[in-house]
Amino acid sequence: MTVPDQYAVFGDPIKHSKSPRIHKIFAEQTGQVLEYKAQEVPAKQFSEAVAVFFANGGKGLNCTIPLKELAWAYADVKTERAGMAKAVNTLALQPEGSLLGDNTDGIGLVTDLISNHGVTLVGSSVLILGAGGASRGIIAPLLEKSVQTLVIANRTIDKAINLAAEFQHQGAITGCGFNDLKGQQFDLIINATSTSLTGQLPPLPEALLSKNGVCYDLAYSNEPTVFVKWGEDNLALKSLDGLGMLVEQAAEAFFIWRGIRPKTRPVIELLNAERKL
Ligand code: NDP
């Protein structure tokens, strides 16, 4: 009997994770023999837990809150996009034994926006709320799609300014605080803060969203998040949550590990149907 290859997602908290389910469906869909588990790993135990996982024959890992920067530091080699993001969500054991670190969050978001929701990024004005690990991962992929302007607004203003400075060579990007947003309008507003997880909303001025603008919350939940509701209240053309991004970033990780690209549309449709039950 073939022993299934072992994969996992590490994070803290991790109970809410849909990743094991998504990868199980991908494996069935593509005929791959593998197991994927969720494991609660606090930041303090990260290095030890990763070492044990790969020593026991693990093939690949996803890392989520609050471990992405630690995974970046742990990886032996990094892809260009992970190097720029300084955050890694996917570790892959290489044939010669080294650990490759990649970041599939940005491509996951951009694919969901463009391919699944028909959002035009070229020439658009984009606002990212938040300057944490998720924000780091999505900046370069958005700039690569030729957005016209990208503004990062954060509670801790210095973090937004410093983050924008890191990516300045790649496009028109600035950092600021939430108060500085007064009087500005954006075609796309992305919530990359963790506020939705606690049912809160960053303090946002009125008339921030352009007519026919789109809102996207990286967080997802069975009920519309506070930010998704904010988008609806502000007459967004579409107000979306991050379930599609989650599936798309998982598909990219699956491709890195297995060399096969699973179909994402049926998985997104299934997970969406389940949360409407
Ligand atoms: P981090 O902890 O790295 O960053 C959190 C960010 O939220 C910081 O900018 C922080 O600001 C801000 N923040 C926290 N509390 C508040 C508050 N009360 N008011 C205003 N701002 C606040 O988290 P991540 O970047 O890793 O994750 C952010 C979100 O993205 C999470 O909801 C996560 O679930 C989601 N995510 C979804 C993915 C998907 O596939 N759909 C993939 C990756 C992330 P400050 O700097 O001032 O502390």
TL;DR?
38% of the residues lie in helices and 22% in strands.
* Helix fraction by DSSP (H/I, runs of at least 4): 25-40%
How many DSSP-defined strands? 12
Q: Which regions are unreliable across 5 or more consecutive residues at pLDDT < 50?
A: none
Largest sheet: 6 strands, mixed
Q: Report the CATH C-level class of the largest domain.
A: Alpha Beta
Task: Record the SSE blueprint.
Elements: E1 5-11, H1 19-30, E2 34-40, H2 46-55, E3 58-63, H3 68-74, E4 77-78, H4 80-85, E5 90-93, E6 99-102, H5 105-116, E7 125-129, H6 133-144, E8 149-153, H7 157-166, E9 173-176, E10 186-191, E11 209-217, H8 226-233, E12 238-240, H9 243-258, H10 265-276
Parallel strand pairs: 1-2, 1-3, 4-6, 7-8, 7-10, 8-9, 10-11, 11-12
Antiparallel strand pairs: 3-5, 5-6
Helix pairs in contact: 1-9, 5-6, 5-9
The structure holds NADPH dihydro-nicotinamide-adenine-dinucleotide phosphate.
Task: Describe this entry's structure for a reader.
The model has no long low-confidence stretch (mean pLDDT 96). The chain has 2 domains: 5-103 and 244-275, Rossmann fold; 106-241, Rossmann fold (3-Layer(aba) Sandwich). Strand 8, helix 7 (157-166) and strand 9 form a beta-alpha-beta unit. Helix content is 38%, strand content 22%. With 277 residues, it is of the alpha/beta class. Helix 5 packs across helix 6 (133-144) and helix 5 crosses helix 9 (243-258). The protein is globular. The N and C termini lie far apart (38 Å). Strands 2-1-3-5-6-4 form a 6-stranded mixed β-sheet, sandwiched between helices. The chain binds NADPH dihydro-nicotinamide-adenine-dinucleotide phosphate (NDP). Residues 65, 105, 108, 130-135, 154-156, 159, 192-197, 200, 202, 218-220, 242, 245-246, 249 line the site of NADPH dihydro-nicotinamide-adenine-dinucleotide phosphate.
